[in-house]
Design goal:
Layout: E1 26-27, H1 30-39, E2 42-49, E3 52-63, E4 66-72, H2 76-80, E5 88-102, E6 110-124, H3 128-142, H4 155-159, E7 161-167, E8 170-176, E9 194-197
Antiparallel strand pairs: 1-8, 2-3, 2-5, 3-4, 4-7, 5-6, 5-9, 6-7, 6-8
Amino acid sequence: MSRATEPAPGYPSTERTVPTRSAERAAYDHETVHAILDEAYVCHLGFVRDGSPVVLPTLYARVGERLYLHGSTGSRPLRMAGGQEPGLDVCVTVTLVDGLVLAKSAFHHSINYRSVVVHGTAYQVTDPAEKTAALDALVDHVLPGRAADSRPGNTKELAATAVIRLDLREVSAKARTGGPNDEPDDLSLPHWAGVLPVAPVYGTPIPSDALAPGTPEPAYLTAR
């Protein structure tokens, strides 16, 4: 199996992070991995429960070389990650779709994407200061500046919220760019081929019905 080039500094490639297909699309450098993690909003948290695989979508935030994920204290995976040992073996994935690749043939249709896969052991955050900082990071990851512009969690809310952390150690990124890879014999077919770009669109902010009259609209809502 061929191994993708590892720019320095980067994460070491392992048996779990080297793709079995299109290994040349993999990247292990911090800059690429961090950029994808910082742009996306939702990750998928995979783990094994009672011998069966489970995958859950959730919000996350990157702080340095750690990912933080949150949920209810009654959540099964967060309870399983409680304490320091043994933690919870997880796989976290993040994907950004950049375009729909339309080929002459159905077989060669694809998508342009950027993705990150993280393997490791997640642990529940028990230090109050780290938990508060992680929750602020989660809010600011969705919308930078929002944590300072909202009421912090109170004692009851913090008690009902659990946070787990996952160190970025066994990590890889993978991406596809460019147009369709049509077969030479298909190039003359009368079908359109190319890429339909996909990008998030932020609309006009819609104020809450309960918003007090005269409440100014924060600049960060339209600064994206």
